[in-house]
Write a structure and sequence with these properties.
Layout: H1 3-15, E1 29-34, E2 37-43, H2 52-60, E3 68-73, H3 85-92, E4 96-101, H4 111-117, E5 121-124, H5 128-134, H6 136-144, E6 148-156, H7 174-186, E7 189-193, H8 194-200, E8 206-209, E9 212-214, E10 217-221, E11 241-246, H9 251-259, E12 263-267, H10 277-285, E13 291-296, H11 298-306, E14 312-318, E15 343-352, E16 355-363
Helix pairs in contact: 3-4
């Protein structure tokens, strides 16, 4: 692999350092190279903070003049919370800019043309696929105006998430659970149902080790507000927590959540008495969320699959046989025929000794 490819791969790796922290912005990484030597690096940390190019330019100083910039996204050409990166690159005397993904945001696009007009050589990188995969949540929201939805579950080899008595800890091993936390760091919000909160009392944080914990927005679908306001999931750290309920929730129960400082979103109920998912997605689309993850239980996952709202699946499969009437990871109405079943593409598998992770995107045009 040549130096140019290494520099773009490095930029992509830098961008990923801000996983789960940049919404509604994309993740962007930048590497500045002069005379074959990396003179500065940078990545975007979050809304209102310097873009990756600006971070790198400040670090490079005079070494930026005549340098080549490798950046994962086309430099912006607009003034928002920060100024145009294209103008900053021109002012710094950059000789060439190599970028991986053209900016599809009409508000910010045009940076490549602006650089070209200023006499700076502009080149597209061959790593567009990798850079797009990194920002698939953000790109999806720009295109569809709703967050990207990932369904995650862990199941036994015979497709169960718990025994018939509800015992579920732990189906998968430590390596799989660590990998699941990797995914949580990538997303902006996690959705679970009331039964999961009552049975497991999860914190739904993203932990790398004892010293680093991220707190995505934790969302609980609870039709009648029957969960405890003191449950771990309602901790207000990080992006906080959101109780999504219906108008059937008793006033005294909602008052208890108000007292604990939990945000409440009351929606119309669907035919099953649960919060209407279309209304939920509209409400979440108005928030700075690029990617959300559904962690269960089976009824919640099933309802999202039935509504064709799932974009990607992360399935952790353990070499365990539970048998009997154990619980399925995906309930709901399901498919009447195999031809109606949802199928995945872009499938990747990973061995997590002793478990296996299968991940892929949902083909929404099939199974209709």
């Amino acid at each position: 692999m040549g130096f140019a490819q290494n520099h773009m791969k490095r930029a992509i790796a830098l961008a990923a350092r801000a996983e789960g922290r940049t919404a509604p912005n994309p993740m962007v990484g930048c590497v500045i190279v002069n005379d074959g030597r990396i003179v500065a690096e940078g990545w975007h940390e979050g809304p209102g903070l310097d873009h990756a190019e600006i971070v790198a330019l400040k670090s490079a100083g005079d070494a930026a003049r005549g340098a080549t910039v490798y950046v994962t996204l086309e430099p912006c050409n607009h003034t928002g919370r920060t100024g145009p990166c294209a103008d900053a690159l021109i002012k710094a005397g950059i000789a060439e800019v190599i970028y991986a993904v053209a900016d599809p945001n009409p508000v910010a696009a045009g940076g490549a043309a602006r650089l070209d007009q200023a006499g700076i050589k502009v080149t597209r990188s061959e790593f567009e696929k990798e850079a797009r995969a990194l920002n698939r949540f953000w790109l999806h929201k720009l295109e569809t105006h709703r967050p990207y939805v990932v369904a995650k579950f862990a199941a036994s080899l015979d497709g169960k998430i718990a025994t018939h008595q509800g015992d579920s800890k732990w189906i998968t091993g430590e390596n799989a659970r660590t990998r699941a936390h990797d995914l949580r760091r990538q997303i902006d919000a996690i959705i679970v149902g009331a039964d999961t909160v009552i049975a497991d009392d999860p914190s739904l944080t993203a932990r790398r080790d004892q010293s680093e914990t991220q707190y995505p927005l934790r969302i609980v679908l609870d039709s009648t507000a029957r969960t405890s306001p003191g449950a771990k999931v309602y901790d207000r750290a990080g992006k906080g927590a959101l109780l999504v309920t219906t108008k059937a929730a008793p006033a005294h129960r909602l008052a208890a959540f108000h007292e604990h400082g939990v945000e409440i979103l009351a929606l119309e109920a669907d035919r099953n008495g649960r919060p209407d998912l279309d209304a939920l997605m509209i409400a979440l689309s108005e928030r700075p969320l690029n990617g959300i993850m559904i962690e269960g239980g089976g009824a919640i996952l099933g309802s999202f699959f039935d509504a064709r709202l799932v974009d990607e699946v992360w399935a952790f499969i353990a070499p365990v046989i539970i048998g009997g009437d154990g619980k399925s990871p995906v309930a709901g109405s399901g498919a009447d025929n195999l031809s109606d079943a949802l199928r995945m593409s872009d499938i990747e598998t990973q061995t997590l000794c002793p478990d296996i992770l299968m991940r892929g995107r949902i083909n929404k045009d099939e199974g209709k």
